[in-house]
Write a structure and sequence with these properties.
Blueprint lengths: L29 H19 L1 E3 L6 E3 L6 H18 L5 H13 L3 H16 L5 E5 L2 E7 H4 L12 H13 L3 E8 L6 H21 L7 E5 L12 H7 L1 E8 L3
Parallel strand pairs: 5-6
Antiparallel strand pairs: 1-2, 3-4, 4-7, 5-7
Helix pairs in contact: 1-3, 2-3, 4-6, 6-7
Amino acid sequence: MRIPHRRLNGIHDGFTPMLHDSAYSNAITKENAMNKKLVLIPGLMLLAGCTTNPYTGEPQVSKTVIGTLGGAAAGAALGAAGGAIAGKPGTGAAIGAGVGALAGMGVGAYMDRQEAILRQKLAGTGVRLAREGNNLRLIMPGNITFATNSSEIAPQFYSTLNAIALVLREYPETLIEITGHTDSTGSEEYNLQLSQRRAQAVAQYLIAQGVAPNRIIARGMGESMPIADNSTPQGRAMNRRVEIRIRPMQR
């Protein structure tokens, strides 16, 4: 069953899919690899600051580096276009892939730095941080974020959200998915609406703190995604939560 969700103004409702290309390392010979060393550096310098906005398709300058394998695929496309323009179709793709792969070496480090800062700032707040590949997931228990049956953020949680917003502003090359969750007490429709309002409240708060709205989606999941047993008080308490998933933008 498709879970309906409301969308905030200016907030996107999807993420750019990751690219995969495992063939590059087997596509060049030793001799070609030596030759490419002569041309990779100028190309890398040009590509390092040039990316495409994943939503508008417009070119833009960015500090982000793309994922290693995704970068290889994107670089191959750019290189192929360059080779065709130069009158040598097919020769540019392998070079472009190498440039993209080199440019993409920093995604893991980019997320590592965010993780380290978030762990430091969130220590002792009750917010749990989980690393999932190159994605980060913040799990905020309902008892510290909202009062029972309320979608108004608890004032004592403002400082925690302020710290999260600060990191999100300092590392702008990520997409942010905010989801609200409830336990199974009450009607399914009520729980869905409450979880939507809570997710939107967190999104609006982060936007008010300067996080760009076009990086954020917010939706309620109701009781559909429990992480614990709803038959116990402890389990229900764990299921009442808001989660923030932070994902690197893929170029």
